[in-house]
Amino acid sequence: MRLLRSTDLALRLLMRLAVTEGATPTTREVAADMDVPYTHAAKVVAELQHQGLLDARRGRGGGLTLTEKGRTASVGAVVRSFEGTGDVVECEGDNPCPLNSACRLRGALRRAQEAFYATLDPLTIGDMVTAPTGPLLLQIGRGPGA
Ligand code: SF4
């Protein structure tokens, strides 16, 4: 399975905020730290804010902060929310596969996908920033807002 770029960015962004708790970097600063386009980071921030995983305040003294829900969020839940739970192979659509109605492979792939998510479910964002990742993220995240 290959994750969407936005899924990886969401996880990295939450980890970045988890390791600099107390700081309020702006979306622009976080995007620069992570070397991603501002517009892409802004879309991910909006979705994470919608899910209640971070607070985003505008203006002077504003910036991004991780919520308690974000710190304790399950990595699996974040991945599911960005990836969705659709099939990993397109079996239907405009040109449906002829095996669609009786395909053992489809069920096996579904179970494999669920096993992938289930492995990530017990892990939290907080777990992901223990050493050695957290200290490295701190070095990277010492921008003006950190
Ligand atoms: S072979 Fe099975 S899994 Fe593959 S596209 Fe067809 S129905 Fe889906």
UniProtKB/TrEMBL annotation:
It comes from the Bacteria. Pfam families: Rrf2 (PF02082). This is Rrf2 family transcriptional regulator. Signal peptide: none annotated. Its cofactor is [2Fe-2S] cluster. InterPro entries: Tscrpt_reg_Rrf2, WH-like_DNA-bd_sf, WH_DNA-bd_sf. Keywords: DNA-binding. Transmembrane segments: none annotated.
